[in-house]
Amino acid sequence: RLPQAFAGIRAMAGAAGDELTAEQRAVYDRQLRVWGVEAQRRLGQAKFFVAGLTGLSAEACKNVVLAGIGSVTLFDDGTSARDAHPGNFLAHAGVADHEGDVASLTAAEATAATLREMNPFGTVTVAKASSAEAAGKEAKAKESDFAGITEQMLAGVDVVLLGGASVAARERVGDLARAAGAKIFAGAVRGYAADFVADLGDAFEYVVETGSSETTKTTTKTVSFVPLRTALRSSWSDLGAGRDGGMRRVNRLAAAATMCAAFERNHGRPPVTKKDLDAMSAEIPSLETANGVKPGWMHSEALVEYAGGGVDGDDAINVVVAESPAVAAIAGGVLAQEMLRAVTKVGEPVRNAFFFSAANGQGTVENLGCGA
Questions:
Q1: Which residues does residue 48 pair with via DSSP β-bridges, in sequence order?
Q2: Which of 93, 142, 69 is nearest to 339 (CA)?
Q3: Other Cβ atoms within 10 Å of 247 Cβ, number
Q4: What's the pTM?
Q5: Mutual orientation of helices 107-118 and 55-67 as an angle, nearest 10°?
Q6: N- to C-terminal Cα distance for the chain?
Q7: In Å, what is the CA distance from 85 to each residue of 141, 325, 353?
Q8: Is 246 exposed, middle or buried (0-12, 13-18, 19+ CB in 10 A)?
């Protein structure tokens, strides 16, 4: 529960309007030294919308709420708190602290309760799809497709986060976010690999500082992003655009991501069997030729890793349910940093995808269709 002492602080924060109170300055002192009062004020006015409450989403939500985001809305897909994603530690904590009937508590409500305790200056709410919307789309859309998310829900939102969404959901909600003028991030952790893709719009402005503390120079730059729909359909020949070393330096997980997205688009599901991966691996030589890539550049191990881990017998591979908490924490930290940067506009953003592998402990920024 939110301590009663926090209620007074929240009231003071709301009454202060756009100005930072003495209490806020004390809480955010270290952040103010890094990105300044104006950036912190932007965070306090920002509105985030989060759907797909996975372990990755939980890590990102924790970090942005602690940083001082003004408002976070969690999309409630009706999942019971008892059935919350195994990696969503926020929901599990909310269940443990709940004093009422846990049976009626949803994962989104339990997650929101925990987030409210983390920072008294922000607002955390839950948005449910209307019963009419849910009934009309239930027959043709799976719960993981976030069918209840509408453009109206995203009106006035600054940043959208999709966790563990299908390719169809990433593309559909990505289009809605663009239409609403919101930035969007879509990410997932599969076993010991993680990724997220961002769309910050056609002309995202940010500032960078160079020089010493005595002679700091501030420069404003503008970069363009492509819609998630375009990014997820990018070809291998696009991956090396504007990169030192070209294709040789590209993370093979990026190539695996585009292959898995194409498979899911064609089959209506991600690759989940050894047969699936064998069929995809057999396509690698022809894809290398079609994209002008040196033979042997891509390897099937990257496909297996991106799909979620090692092959388990002849039938299934370890996917999604094997989300690594450690990987979620690492990738969630980077993801939260980029979500905050989309609001503060301080520092160069990831353009437009990030991939992390626990196998080699490396995370890389990759370009999916944004050009040089």
A1: 72, 159
A2: 69
A3: 18
A4: 0.86
A5: 30
A6: 49
A7: 20, 12, 24
A8: exposed
